[in-house]
Amino acid sequence: MSNTNNDSSDIKQAAERADSEKIAKNLKDEQKSATPETLSEDEQTSFIKEELRTDK
After folding, report:
1. Can you tell me the mean pLDDT for 22-44?
2. Over 70: is that where the pLDDT of 4 sits?
3. Residue 56 or residue 23, greater confidence
4. Can you tell me the mean pLDDT for 33-44?
5. Torsions phi, psi of 4, nearest 5?
């Protein structure tokens, strides 16, 4: 059952509780994301096996 017309929807509640100053501060913060860890040779696998590829 859909509650799309419900005034107490999660989206509406989130919009009402949003703090525009906090959002603006978060957007201004230039935090560098952590660099990804290096994968071992066993972990560096492709999602598609090379012998199954048809685009080559």
Report:
1. 79
2. no
3. 23
4. 80
5. -65, -25
Map the chain to HEC letters: CCCCCCCCCHHHHHHHHCCHHHHHHHHHCCCCCCCCCCCCCCCCCCCCCHHHCCCC
**Stated pTM of the model:** 0.33
Burial 7-43, CB ≥16 within 10 A → b, else e: eeeeeeeeeeeeeeeeeeeeeeeeeeeeeeeeeeeee
Handedness of CA 5, 6, 12, 16 (dihedral sign): positive
